[in-house]
């Protein structure tokens, strides 16, 4: 009965029939030894099934991942970007150009970021062919890297992929990008595919959450491939409205692919809690990052001045749901005691800020810009060391939307800092406002941590940061 009671606590619905018909069951048990044995067998089988299901639902793994790495011809140093901007026909007023240059100086972006060939034309090529060429370049490179790194867990290569999730926010083509991957790698005809758009810089974490849900209810040994990117060719804004010029300065070319499984075989990380908070019900949050046309009818992404404040509110709400599941009991007690003090003493009592550094060894915060990273650091009470991976990713690669978080994870590993048992906290933001967080626990450090996107340059980092 102790086993049955444990099963009931894990899955209350499984215990309901036993409770409802407890009287009839007790009567039957006293009438025949055979029925006693049958009842015991049924109860034990049910308990085992519930326990197995509970275990299967909480065990999803990241097998390995890969990132796109631009070639030298894709680099866009500040001097090149400035020269091209001065030659752009739509920046004739000078004020817009000065604004972009000042923004770039404060952005934290370095000299080795990458852009597609389509943006080197004047004016830039925003056509379908340019978007397709960029998609094939970055997506195929990321998937090739992920499949190569996960090869020991994929005996048949891409044919072992059972589900595919692809996210690209501002470009949707037909056939969709999921079909592009299926065609390129010859995935099976019964592969389950999902193609997401509009998810913004939280796209990777949203995809991980979706893939986790799929794997939790799939047969053991099921594998999923997650791909996330953002195409600059189609999202480039050839206008002069300042709020819509910001993405032109911050965003750069990149993509990442992740192989996930519900089997621990050869896996490198265990996927823990996934929490997503959406504040789009508030109008001011909903409108602070919006794709629209300017006064001249040119389409772009309008980033409102309210965006940092809206992101801070979304992060606060996300942490309220996230913290109880990840913070140690000592921190939760301190938070509870602080809340009681404020309840009885009023606003004069100092609010206790949870020490998230005690729950995680590493942090990957979306590098939306130096201001965003500074605000998150203050909000979470993180050290400069906690923010190093995020800031160095912004410097080396720029804002690559959702895929940026995998470059940050690669930075931590390239530095040799990832140890077995370490926990990683990933946080991303998207228009909406959407704040997503994912916890990963390392179960097997990388055999060759220096073979990712930081190969050849990790020895030069970290660089000074004073923004």
UniProtKB/TrEMBL annotation:
<dbReference type="GO" id="GO:0016747">
    <property type="term" value="F:acyltransferase activity, transferring groups other than amino-acyl groups"/>
</dbReference>
<dbReference type="InterPro" id="IPR016039">
    <property type="entry name" value="Thiolase-like"/>
</dbReference>
<keyword id="KW-0012">Acyltransferase</keyword>
<feature type="domain" description="Chalcone/stilbene synthase C-terminal">
    <location>
        <begin position="363"/>
        <end position="442"/>
    </location>
</feature>
<dbReference type="InterPro" id="IPR012392">
    <property type="entry name" value="3-ktacl-CoA_syn"/>
</dbReference>
<dbReference type="Pfam" id="PF08392">
    <property type="entry name" value="FAE1_CUT1_RppA"/>
</dbReference>
<comment type="pathway">
    <text>Lipid metabolism; fatty acid biosynthesis.</text>
</comment>
<protein>
    <recommendedName>
        <fullName>3-ketoacyl-CoA synthase</fullName>
        <ecNumber>2.3.1.-</ecNumber>
    </recommendedName>
</protein>
<feature type="domain" description="FAE">
    <location>
        <begin position="54"/>
        <end position="343"/>
    </location>
</feature>
<dbReference type="InterPro" id="IPR013601">
    <property type="entry name" value="FAE1_typ3_polyketide_synth"/>
</dbReference>
<comment type="similarity">
    <text>Belongs to the thiolase-like superfamily. Chalcone/stilbene synthases family.</text>
</comment>
<dbReference type="GO" id="GO:0006633">
    <property type="term" value="P:fatty acid biosynthetic process"/>
</dbReference>
<dbReference type="Pfam" id="PF02797">
    <property type="entry name" value="Chal_sti_synt_C"/>
</dbReference>
<dbReference type="InterPro" id="IPR012328">
    <property type="entry name" value="Chalcone/stilbene_synt_C"/>
</dbReference>
<keyword id="KW-0808">Transferase</keyword>
<dbReference type="GO" id="GO:0016020">
    <property type="term" value="C:membrane"/>
</dbReference>
